[in-house]
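Limitations

Structures in this collection are predictions, not experimental determinations, and the ligand pose is part of the prediction. Treat each record accordingly. The example that follows, with zinc ion as the small molecule, is included so readers can see exactly what is and is not provided: the inputs are given verbatim, and the output is the predicted complex.
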Amino acid sequence: MGFISPPIRQTLELAELAVVTVILRVIHLSYSHRHRSRPLGTLLLTRGPVLRHARHMTVELYAVTCGHLTIPSAFLLSKTKGWITVPVPAYVMIHPKGRVVFDSGMHLRTQTDALGYFGEEGLKYNQPIFEPGEEIAARLKALSIAPEQITHLVNSHLHYDHAGGNAQLPNAEIVLQQREWDHAMALPDNDIAYHKADFDTGQSLRKLSGEHDLFGDGTVVCIPTYGHTPGHQSLRVQTAHGEFVLCGDACYLKQSLDNLHLPGVVADKEAALAVFHRFREMQARGSRIMFGHDPDFWRTIPQAPTRLA
Ligand SMILES: [Zn+2]
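Predicted complex:
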C-alpha cells in the first residue's frame, strides 16, 4: 500500500519544511530588496504561485473499524445470493482548525439490545457484530482524542451504520446534505434503515446543498454523491501522500467499481451509476478510493493509531 513508517515520514516532513523555509527566505530577501516598504504577508496574498504554495495544506487521515454487520449479499451486489459480513468503517482527520470524523458507526444500543433497536423484521436482515470498545468514542482512544474534542462530524448519509454514533461526539457540528436531512426526517419512525434516535439528537447541524470545502483550503471537501440515498455525500481528503476519496455507501466494494455492479438496494440507479463513473475518473487521476464496506479491502487498511496517510 506504500505506507511510510512514522520516523521516515517525520524525517521527510522535516526535510520538506527546511526546503520551504529556505525558499521563503530567498523570496523574502529578493522581495525586500525590491519593495522595502511592503511586508512579506502582502507578497503571499498578492503573488499567485506563492499563494498556491502557501495554501497547499494537508491533513492526517486515520481509519477505524466500528464493528461488523452480516447482511444479504444482494444488498451490496444486485442479484447475488447468500450473506456477507462487512466492516463498519469510520475515519478521523486531524487538521490545524479541527478534528473531523467521517461517519460514526452504529448506535450503542445495538451492542446490548439489537432486537429492541432493529425490531424483529429489521434484525432478520441486519445482524450487528458490535462489541463494547468498538464504538467510535472508544476507537478515538487509539489517537488519544476525547470524544468531546471532535469538532466536526461529516455524515455520508443517515443510515443506522453511518449515523448511529453521532451522539457519542457531543460537541461536533454535524455536516450533512440538506436533502438527506429532509428525506430522513420525513420518514416514519419504524423505518428499518433510518432511526431518528441516531441523528435527531439536537446537535448543531451544517446542512449543505452540494459541494462544500470544510476548512476553505481544499483539504476536506464534501462531494455530493446522491444515488444510494437522496442526499448521500462522500469526502475528498487531501493528505501528504495524495488524495483519498472516502466513499461512504456510494461504492461498497472494489468489485462494484471494477464491474459497475450496482447494489440491490439503491434510491436512484442512474445517479448511483454516474457516481461510479466519477469515482473511476478520480481513480484514474491517482485518487485512492476507500470502498465503503469491502471486507477484503478493509483487511489491508491500517487502523488507528497507524496513520493511513
Ligand atoms: Zn453502510
